Amino acid sequence: MKKRNRMIIILLSLCMILGGCTKTAKEDEKPTSVVVGFSQLGAESSWRIANTKSMEAAAKEYGFGLMMENANQKQGKQIDAIRSFIAYQVDVIVFSPIVENGWDNVLKEAKRAGIPVILMDRMIETTEENLYTAYIGADFYAEGQRAGEYLKRKADALGADHMNIAEISGTIDSTPMRDRQRGFMDAICGDERFTVIDSICGDFLRSMGEECMRELLKKHGRDGIDVIYSHNDSMTLGALTVLEKEGIQSGKDIILITVDGEKEAVSQLKAGKINCVVQCTPNLGGDVMQLVERMKNGEAIQGVFHPEEGLFTDFDDLTDPAVEGF
Ligand code: GZL
Q1: Most buried among 17, 56, 216, 316, using CB within 10 Å?
Q2: pLDDT at 33
Q3: What residue spans define the domains of the chain?
């Protein structure tokens, strides 16, 4: 018998022996009381990675089974994941919709299957009734307003008579992009000092933040932009590397306003390179699983649940230990 075949037989036998000795993980685990199907939209930013960790930790803490599918920024993959959760007959479906539209059909299937849906982090736009039980996530409009109110305060402090604003936006038609833009524009609306000269999509990605900044500088020149309003820290940190390469003093020559509140952005605030960090907590897992627990106990859950959020700015005492990122 060829040596190779002999080796294969030995290896196979070894696997069978070992396989028989170790209990499969399943036999060790106590049966889970609840299985949560979770469609996560991607891993595009530090915020998203922290959000995923928060969901995993909370599911473990509550002893719930968590079936998580990462859609890598593709709505179609989220829809497929939700369909697989329905087929598996999970107890609850949780998902963070990458964009607001296009969910009615799959959510009607979940409704017909009697599986409650919780929206986490982002909202959907629908004319259908009761396609989801609850929304847990930020009030993005208020986040945009906070950014706008900060800018007005900053303009007052600088005695600025005019400021050109360029926006680097998140994923088009996502709730954070739509509402952070709306809240900001409403806050500065009517204030003659401000002109929004451009808005360019960076898709919440750091690499795109760099590209957007290069394009904005090319289009408007280094003296043509006074303020950058960026919808998340990842894009802001990308933009920052371009400003530094160009020898532009961000935080001074150009005011930088960002949203999320990750550690690196807060340290750049403390370094004077970012002026305002609007908080948006990724730690939603505990709230989600608490809601699942209440639903499991028969409570009728309906509504919108926003976490407490604020902002850190260059007007604050940045040595205060409370000024920290996630
Ligand atoms: C906000 C979340 C956004 C973050 C980005 O709740 O949906 O998506 O602001 C993330 O960092 O990519």
Answers
A1: 216
A2: 80
A3: 6-137+282-308, 140-280
Judge whether residue 43 has pLDDT over 60: yes
Rounded to whole angstroms, how far apart are CA atoms 258 and 31?
A: 44
pLDDT at 18 over 50: no
Task: Show the ligand 1 pocket: residues with CB < 6 angstroms.
Answer: 44-45, 47-48, 121-122, 137-138, 176, 204, 232, 234, 259-260, 280
* Domain at 6-137+282-308, CATH from 3.30.300.30, 2.170.270.10, 3.40.50.2300, 3.40.50.980: 3.40.50.2300
Q: What is the pLDDT of residue 302?
A: 87
Which of 226, 325, 231 shows the shortest CA–CA distance to 270? 325
- Taking the mean position of all CA atoms in its chain, how far away is CA 216? 24
